[in-house]
Amino acid sequence: MEETKKTRIAAVADIHVKESDKGKWVNCFKEASKQADVMLICGDLTDTGDEAEAQILAEELKACTIPVVGVLGNHDYEKGRHKLIRQIVQNENVHILNGESIVIANIGFAGVKGFGGGFDNHMLSMFGEGAMKAFVQEAVDEALHLDRALARLDAEYANIKKIAVLHYSPIKATVVGEPEPIFPFLGCSRLAEPLTRRQVVAAFHGHAHVGTLEGEAAGGVKVFNVAKPILVKAGYTLPFYMFEV
Ligand SMILES: [Fe+2]
Ligand SMILES: [Fe+2]
After folding, report:
1. How many domains does the chain have?
2. Domain containing residue 195: CATH number
3. What's the DSSP call for residue 201?
4. Which of 48, 132, 185, 197 is deepest in the core (most CB within 10 A)?
5. Mean pLDDT across the chain, nearest whole number?
């Protein structure tokens, strides 16, 4: 692949669009379209997982003239209408990934929601009651889907630069700031294994609203928690984080 100019990525998570949010995101999406080549929205697109909220977001996203790559978050699952929400938001310019990947501006984006399970030596293991095993299995499955999406990019495009789009955190460092007892529900180290193995450049996530903006997974993989409240607190008024690959 010939050396091309850098790709500018604007990223935000946890926008939690409500029915009363009509017009709230137009300026953000317009500005992102001027400043970036691609926009990431890392889950919790809607506040209560309602299709009316997804309709509002779909309208707001018309202001976004650059490609949008996103994943759903736990809030989008709240009413069991996540498939409908994905359908409403998705179009030829908006790609909501669930174990898939897409190439935009020579960068490969792989997306999964992810799940909880905890971090490092405090990660939950597959033991005990069925409910606990199902909890652990969800994180295992999400990590496998992420790995497969990244592997497919490698197989189809030699030496492609890869970005991961998640909702849950793959590392502990970017949830720090949240109460420690809830860390197991904010992300899981299992999500970090594919990032390191497939030499991902950077991973973007949200979900931990009062976590930490920047961290790093093994192998030098940059990790950014771009939850909107974190960006606002850090002074990003629009709000989106800018990253160049
Ligand atoms: Fe959220
Ligand atoms: Fe969330």
Report:
1. 1
2. 3.60.21.10
3. S
4. 185
5. 97
